Amino acid sequence: MQLILLMIAAAVVFGLWNSARAAAERAEVLGRNACHAAGVQWLDQSVHATGMRVYRREDGWLGLERTFRFDYSHDGTDRHAGRLVLRGDRLVSFTGPTAGAQVIPLPPRGRDLHSDD
Predict the structure, then answer these.
(1) What is the mean pLDDT of residues 52-65?
(2) What is the side-by-side strand order in the sheet with 90-95?
């Protein structure tokens, strides 16, 4: 009896680990594609899981919502954080680079934006 319970527990742990890896791989693809579409550099070549919570799916069952963070750069010297949220394998929220986004450089120190010199 104990062996059966141990095998069931191992199967549940393996299933959770496997779904976490699948979600991380999906988040990697989404982050990489978003950076490529926006013309920015995807930094560290990875995403980092930052949160997980339970939510109620449309069919009434419980599901897991996972939040991931990734970093990107416009010119190789700056660093910005992006965030995406997956419910299962479906993207429900994205914050990060967008296609056609313009970066406005800051003026050199000591100069005013409105100066006419």
Answers:
(1) 92
(2) 41-56, 62-73, 80-87, 90-95
